[in-house]
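quick one before i forget lol
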Amino acid sequence: MINLQRMVIRSKALRWGLLISALVVAIIIAVQLFWLQKVYLFEEKQFSTNVSKSIKGLYEDLNLMGEHSIEKLIEISDNDFYLAKIDEAPPIDSIRNTLSYELADFGVFTDCNIAVYDAQTKKYSGERYIDLPDTYHSNSDNISIPVFKRNYSYLILFFPHRGQYILKEMYFWIISSGILLLVLIGFSGSIFYLYRQKFLNETQKDFVNNFTHEFKTPLAVIKIAADVLQQPSIIQKPDKFTKYAGIITEQTDYMQRQVQRLLEIAYTDRKTLPLVLEQFDANQLIQKAINDLQPLILEKSVQLTTSFTQNNAVIKADKNHLLLVIINLIENAIKYSQQPVIKISTFAEDLHLIVKVEDNGMGINSEHYKKIFDRFYRVTDGEIHTTKGFGLGLNFVKKIVDAHNGKIEVESKRGEGSTFTIKIPKNL
């Protein structure tokens, strides 16, 4: 029979595939970001080269270079400022017109502020603004160029929007990277959706197999018992009649309990579980659960003891839901024990009531602690389920406890029994 553990094993390969795919996507994104950075640095270097060529053209057009090399005449400060050494400055408007042509000629189409620094006065003797096709007009006339004090006169070029201009030159790379990123995100989302869908399909298949297995045997027993009761000679055998009628009743009760459990878990699937709050004595509620299970307790020869707190055990909660919680825990304690010995205790702790259900059953290994509250999960002995059921009971219990803002914990050791502890607020 297919079970959840085997389903998880089958899903491991898919999970690894999902992990590897996510890793590949992350690597691709990292590489793309790395290349975007490289492209930006390249564009930045190309920008500086073109500006230097434009300044060289300015020197040549206005005969400003003299015997110096262009590398010794230009100083770059903070990438946005270019200082060009000059011995004698021509009219600022002449510089503006010539430089505007040179910048455009070398493909520099962003706005630029220029100024001429006088080494004697230690200040700018003139400033102009160069308006180029790809200029940014926001407050360009109000931009103030900081003074870089030098012992020589120089022409300064300030590109206030150099960064934006370079990014604009990278539009193709940025847009293509964005499209690739969206494609990768969509691809990752599709893989995750397919994985989740496969997991849900496997869960559904596992549930159907469990459902078929759990109901197949009782139905077969009922069919056999019904066939026996239809025999004419059964009237002369009252003991046999009573026996097979009891078998039908027992199997029918079992199926009714399973159906009820399915209805309960379907009910708790709502996003918000509606609670009908009322005040009641939790000790009395536990005693009612024990009374309701008395036929099962007698049938299995259960040794059940209680130890109730003498302090105030009155809580405000949903009485019917908590009754089902206690019944589920007691049923599990009986079901997982060969010769059930069960102890139920209550304790008052500040604003909470604590309920403990201890048994001497087969116990649970620690690796199962978190999983036993998952839907359809059943602890197995190797590949064999040691008990009947759909793996819904504890999931149902936890949902009810969570709805009451409570906590449920388990302490267990294989072969030595289990203890389930519920902590419920006295006033929700």
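fyi Residues 114 and 128 are 5 Å apart (CA to CA).
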